[in-house]
Amino acid sequence: IKPIHIIGGGMAGSEATWQAASAGVPVILHEMRGVKGTEAHQTDQLAELVCSNSFRSDDHTTNAVGVLHEEMRRAGGLIITTAADHQVPAGSALAVDREGFAEAITAKLEAHPLVTIVREEIAGIPPEDWDSVIIATGPLTSQALAEAIHAHTGEGDLAFFDAIAPIIYMDSVDMTKAWRQSRYDKPGPGGDTAAYINCAMDEAQYNAFLDALIAAPKTEFKDWEKDTPYFEGCLPIEVMAERGRETLRFGPMKPVGLTNPHDPTVKSHAVVQLRQDNALGTLWNMVGFQTKLKHGAQAEIFRMIPGLEKAEFARLGGIHRNTFLNSPKLLDEQLRMKSIPRLRFAGQVTGVEGYVESAAMGLLAGRFAAAERLGRTLPPPPPTTALGSLVLHITGGHLQGKQTFQPMNVNFGLFPDITDYSKVGPDGKRLRGKDKGRAKKMAQAVRALQDVDAWLAGEAELVPAE
Ligand code: FAD
What we know:
It is a single chain. By secondary structure, this protein is α+β, with helices and mostly antiparallel strands. It is about 30% helix and about 15% strand. It has helices spanning about 10-20, 65-75, 80-85, 100-110, 145-155, 205-215, 225, 235-245, 295-300, 325-330, 355-375, 385-395, 435-460; strands spanning about 5, 25-30, 55, 85-90, 95, 115-120, 135, 160-165, 165-170, 180, 195-200, 270-275, 285, 315, 320-325, 335, 340-345. The strands form four sheets. The protein has a six-stranded mixed sheet, covered by helices on one side. Strand 16 and strand 17 (about 340-345) form a beta hairpin. It is globular and about 75 Å long. The mean pLDDT is about 90. The structure holds flavin-adenine dinucleotide (FAD). Flavin-adenine dinucleotide binds near residues 9 and 141.
């Protein structure tokens, strides 16, 4: 059997290598560390954790990343099972001894008879005789390869910076204060004149908000990030706030063209707008609110906005160096590049966010490539699973109209809604608020694990056992 070439031995590449080799397909893994470093990695070990040592919550009953852990465990994931062997105490989170973890991954892959590891940088689009390739070079993809991909995809389809505006769960917005309206009631493509959720502030609220923004702790750009000139177009809100007290009112918080139906006589001094972020309408992003405020400060300050006092965040804002594709345009549901189908992509470069999500996309890319090599087609996991919801996210299934694609962690907002769950508590009373939300998440988690089992059972008929 001809080998699959996997470029990048990080979270995604290591997992993809394991999955393909476990299916009986030889892999050549090309990892540049050892001959060339990145700005963040410290060692030559495969699957090095660049920052935190946590894989986040391991609770697969009410937490979406915990569900993803469990799905990967059931699929024999290298990253998740090795993490369990190197676990350190972290409450309900799964955290690891980073050195022991990376050493174990490296040793397992080095020992696998079907895996060859080559320490080299792949500096361009791989040669044509590599007929099956997985590119898993991560947020810090080397410059030469990034430039080659950029030249192929064209301007705008490979991002170098990730400017993230916070995303809020719709059901945590207080609609007795907020309201739906598009600016000047301008109809959108479907004729909708109420596409946005608006949260208005009076002058005192705006001034207090501005003071809090300016005083809040910020994360600094790393030295190597300062040299990448890609973010002038999307300034952090706190930088705008520092430029002048009116700057935000003439930018993302402009109050024009909107009337607060809760009190139509009062003119809003500033308005924060939320835009629908997924097709289901469960997630809404804060328009123009990319920020480098520390996460704790963000939640506190954004809850000062009328209507968002109890906001729950699916993702907080940030700006950092992150190389990622415009995957909804460029990739198919097998994670293949539509214009060069012998190339698959996996990991953070596809527009997922986080160690676990990156490894998850490696798990799928490895299995898709192995199935293809063995003459079979493996369908993607159903969208009701954590794995499937991520594939749908990166292939554009959650996008609406002209929204731009932004990387994301796994969260229940990406799962299809569920109505079939018990809305009554053990005391016989109707569940409300957080209790109801929890019951819904539990039902989504149960459905995800049932559906991933069915997908794996179907796959077993496609891929021969080891
Ligand atoms: P990586 O794990 O980075 O692996 C990519 C590999 O490709 C690297 O080993 C690299 O050396 C190699 N490579 C790159 N270019 C080439 C080339 N041309 N040829 C050969 N090899 C190449 N996520 C979290 O969940 N928690 C965190 O705390 C966290 N902190 C982060 C901090 C920083 C500074 C960055 C940049 C990201 C962070 N992330 C974090 C986000 C992300 O989840 C991780 O970066 C994750 O490691 C991504 O997995 P990956 O496999 O896609 O990429």
